[in-house]
Amino acid sequence: MTPRSTNEAWHIGVLGGSGLYQGIELDNQQEIEVSSPFGEPSGPVTTGTVGNVRLTFMARHGMGHAKSPDTVNYRANIDVMKRCGVTDLIAISAIGSLREEM
User: Fold this and answer.
1) How many domains does the chain have?
2) Strand extents, DSSP E, 1-102
């Protein structure tokens, strides 16, 4: 991995879990549909800026948690982020359990 120069622009991508898409407020915010040769992504991306950093967000399971984990097209989602110009990617998730005692 090559260190980033302080002069290079950041474009952060965030793949968020359920509910994280609510309350995102970016400057110059817009929602766009991006296609992928790997199939249908989970949904549109929301893009904009925070200060001087470009940010692109996608709800991993689609808006309203429309896709279960086994139906998410992870490859298409990553490809869409790349097509949007994302240079660094953060994936956020919450993990549950089927064991009641936890």
Assistant:
1) 1
2) 11-16, 27-32, 45-50, 53-59, 88-91
Backbone angles phi, psi at 80, to 5 degrees: -60, -40
Q: What is the DSSP letter of 47?
A: E
The answer to whether 56 and 81 are in contact (CB under 8 A) is: yes
For 47-94, the pLDDT digits (tens) are 999 888 999 999 988 877 788 888 999 999 999 999 999 999 999 877
Judged by DSSP in three states, 89 sits in strand
- List for the chain the helix, strand, coil content (%; round to 5): 15, 30, 60
C-alpha span between 93 and 42 (Å, rounded)? 15
**2 located within any domain:** no
C-alpha–C-alpha distance, residues 44 and 51, integer Å: 23
SS3 80: helix
**Domain coverage including residue 60:** 11-91
The reply to whether the predicted model has a pTM over 0.90 is no
Is residue 71 in some structural domain? yes
